[in-house]
Amino acid sequence: MEGQIFKRKIYDAMLRWKHDSAGSTALMIEGPRRVGKSTIVKQFAQREYKSYIIVRNIPTG
């Protein structure tokens, strides 16, 4: 249950980003491996956009 609440908080933050940026900025998601980053991004993209691009494994220096 706790994982679902956390995912909902992240999803809500992504909705705020979408509203506030109005498409003028990219969104970068960072975090430890295997916590669901790709899953939540894919769900968000499918629900909120007609088309999308997900770029993975960008070196952060």
From TrEMBL:
Domain AAA, first and last residues per copy: 25-54
Superkingdom of the organism of origin: Bacteria
UniProt cross-references to InterPro entries, sorted A to Z: AAA_14 (IPR041682), P-loop_NTPase (IPR027417)
Protein known as: AAA family ATPase
Organism in which the protein naturally occurs: Sodaliphilus pleomorphus
Taxon lineage: Bacteria, Pseudomonadati, Bacteroidota, Bacteroidia, Bacteroidales
